[in-house]
Amino acid sequence: MRPAGLLRGGIFAVLVLAMPLMTSAHWILNIAVFTVMYAGLALAWNLIGGFAGYPSLGHAAFFGIGAYVEAIWFNHHSVGAGYLPFFVLPIVGLAVAFAMLPVAWVALRTRADVFAIVTITLLFVVQTLAFNLHSVTEGSQGIGIHPPPFDPATYERPFYWAMAAIFLLAMIVTWLVQNSKTGLALLAIRGDEDRASGIGVHVTLAKLVAFFLSTALTAMIGAVWAYYVTFIYPQFAVDPLVTIGMVLMTFLGGRATLWGPVVGALILAPAQQYLAYQFGSSRLYLLAYAAVFLIVMVFLPRGIVPTLAEWRFSRRRAARAATAGIRPQSRRQQVTTP
Fold this sequence. Notes:
- With 338 residues, this protein is mainly α.
- Helices cover 75% and strands 1% of the residues.
- The chain contains 17 helices and 2 strands.
- The chain has a two-stranded antiparallel ribbon with strand order 1-2.
- The model has no long low-confidence stretch (mean pLDDT 88).
- GO terms for molecular function: branched-chain amino acid transmembrane transporter activity.
- One of its GO terms (cellular component) is plasma membrane.
- Keywords: Cell membrane, Membrane, Transmembrane, Transmembrane helix.
């Protein structure tokens, strides 16, 4: 990474971590918690759905499993000073990711729409198990975590910082994948998996690595969420709308990019929370989701970040051509000229 890029990344991380110190309004901090949560989820989904091109619709299952692991353990154990549930997050993420590897190995043998069906089936299997394993999950009655003894005036801050830490970790992981052989392998798989396999790319290993990282990050975020809300039940913890949110934010910002899912989450997550506050349980924000999805598909099929990058590149090329006295080509000429 160039020094300028490292400096910009450091400034962004400082701003993210300092945000709770800029306000004490609980409703703003609550929106901030869910914004960094969805930004982390969108980045996690982007690893398998964006870079590898495998459209998982079952990530809410990993989110819910992480939430239940945290809730079940701390339903029977003390949270101490309140920070112990944060310290076990890496264990939760790794445990869920390793447990899901056999499922991933089977699911990733399918492709495209079949993979999407397999993963959404997994979501409903996990939700059904959460309903029926009553002795473990307490079924539809739900399960709670002991509330932490945090100061009510700054109650949201520890949860925000935990979510922000996972979000920044997801950004680092995405950057490392994007600039590694694994990232190139995933992009090759998304372009043409058979051809990638033919030229020697270890397609199964690359897909499993992306799935493992994506699952671990999603499960850790689910665990923090469960601790934040302190009470979960199956249709709340394993909610398909969580998957829809992370997918839509990734598509809006731009798949297979570092900043695309972040931009999508910064736009949609606060709007979702605001509409939820205004209209309660009516879920009118789903209409906004549908409208945004249509706009993205029609006007920004590649997402905001790739579209802006292409526009900026075109302007620079036009400026260089004008400086050199060369007449810029139209887009049709650019396509047809060898």
